[in-house]
Amino acid sequence: MKRLHARRAGIALFFTICTIAVISIIVYGMIYFMRGEVYHSENYVDSTISLLLAEAGVEETLFAVKSQMNDPENAFYKLITQQDEGSVDMDLSRLSKGTKSVTPIVQGGTVKARLSWQLDKKAFEDLIAQGVPREIARQGSIIINSQGSFHNTRKQVEVKKSLKAMLLKGPLNANAVGMIAPEHGLFLNKSDPDSFKIQTFDFWDPWGFIVKGGKTYMQDGVNIDLPKWLMLTKMRNELEHPWLDMGIGWTGWNGGADLSDTEIEYSENPVNRQYYKWQGIFHWPWWEKSNGELYHSQTREVKKYENKSVNVYPAEVYKRLANRVVDPQETPKHGQYFTNVNFEEAFGRNEVTYQNVVPLYGWGDWRKVPNKYSRYFGNPTKAHDTSRAVEINGLTYIKGDVFLEGWVKGKGLLVVEGNIYVGGDVLTLPDDSGLESSVGIIALRDKSWDTSTENPQTGKIIYKPHHDSDWSRFGITHPFRNLSPRLEGCFHAQGGMELETDSSMKKLCNMDIVGNLSVDYFDRRRMPNDVRITYYNWQEVLERSTYDYTVDKKIDYINLYELAIQKEIVSWREVDATL
Length: 579
Fold this sequence. Notes:
Structural class: alpha/beta
Number of strands: 27
Largest sheet: 11 strands, parallel
Helix content: 10-25%
């Protein structure tokens, strides 16, 4: 019995130990499984957070690019606009470290990103094939690689988007016809070397030339004689010994050129002044002619002006832009506009005829002048009637000679391929709306037959004064009328300006220009005796016109690209962490 009881007791112990072992294995398995689940859960959370951080890095990169991409100082702007491919690292510390006012997106997480650029040459060539200039547009793709890290877990995503870079549009091309050399009171290209020389025996009334305001440009330069009176007044502070130095000429009161109120520019040869400079009491001779002295302290060398920069264009450009064209060669019936204009002084003397010209005569009729008490015993003239003012609106192109005189109104240009004969004053009236008028006179050479280089036959503004027996009620013209005309406007003459008269009072013919004068060939000795130019910028008045004077409507572009990123994503994928 005892033996049987002991055997049973041993079996119970065995089953007890086996039961405990099985239970332990089950418990350990459950614990191991639970620990694995916890580990995998932690890994999943870390991976998710890392992935979210990587995606946040993409958005932060796009935000940085879009908010600063048009700043030329940024690295990615330089990359996209100057290189075909490349990459830059982005600063995303704001996401991981935060700022004073914004906490980090996740404590313990880090984000970094790299922006890569690749020019799409095929798309770029397609743009060029569509007519886009090569230097205007760039097209390609940007790739953002962003890596997020959290608790030693890293996830990296790659996002690809399309990008276009276009140069910003500037204003329309500024090339437009209008006032020639609008910043200059006097603009000369080739000039005669003796233009401002005071003749030794010209003591009665030396030829004087004055420019007030604006700039003066002389491409070839010139030597200008100084009279004594100018040396003692406006040029006194420019000379070393103004009281001892001697001027050129006998009278010392006039002649040469007074350019003291204007800035002087030259390109090829300097603009010098000439006078007899005091050398000192111990030097013989005491006076010697100056050599190589610039006209004044505001005389400087500049680059030669291009034609477009001063609004000079070939005849065909003006003809193409004109709203009125008179060309008898192209349209024979236009020949009806050309006629001979004849003037006679009282008693049939001093006849002046303008041959085969288009008459633009802006004086009225003294008979139509309204009677007033002050005029009953007065002498009304054609200038008192303004009803026949010459209207110049827009651009009028005439091939042939033109006779111009009197009142003008409107805002426009008169372009003549031939000569322009000025018979007297050219004065502006307010236009029909009561606003300021402006007239530009441009004389171009007819190069179909005028091929001379030294003595042009066309493209000239010719002052040809005349008397008029029907000028006023009394019928007897004042002997000094038209000796000193006033011309209001901007005047350009390829062939130069000159005086044409056989009058015995030729020496008394002067001219007053309010605006500017521009010539390609300048010979001072062929012009009226005294010429005074008071600079006025008529271009500002012309620009108020509704007429389109634009030569080239090509859009200009400034040196600044406008970057545009497409909203659509080309591709998105998760890649191996390599950053």
